Fold this sequence. Notes:
Layout: H1 7-26, E1 30-31, H2 36-48, E2 53-60, H3 62-68, E3 75-76, E4 82-90, E5 93-102, E6 107-117, H4 119-141
Antiparallel strand pairs: 1-3, 2-4, 4-5, 5-6
Amino acid sequence: xxxxxxxxxxxxxxxxxxxxxxxHQFVGSPVNLSTAGSLEAAIRDSISLQPCVQSIxxxxxxxxxxxxxxxxxxxxxxxxxxxxEAVIRYGTAVVHVGMRYDxxxxxxxxxxxxxxxxxxxxxxxxxxxxxxxxxxxxxxxG
Length: 142
């Protein structure tokens, strides 16, 4: 038996797509202390264009950048340098996700921080369905 795919399922899927796209699109980009702010804005603006993104914040760790500057005055953006928070909404589900460097694991971990169901939206949808059913019944009777 197949289970119904819920708004929550889709919101979680979309969250993974957003974080994965961000990571694989921007890691390796040239960055230095002067360009870190504009790179943060470019990442934020790019990902915020995608469907379902309610908000996103991106922070590049300046100390990590400073410590990796090469002889040419820049370094490559690494996943460990990124701090990301995003809110993804699909239907009645809102998912808060993030990416942070975990020093103990030496890995930029992506995580689900919170999942919300929007009861008010669900109630509106149920009210619309109830009204549609009422109208159908009136048509059948009338």
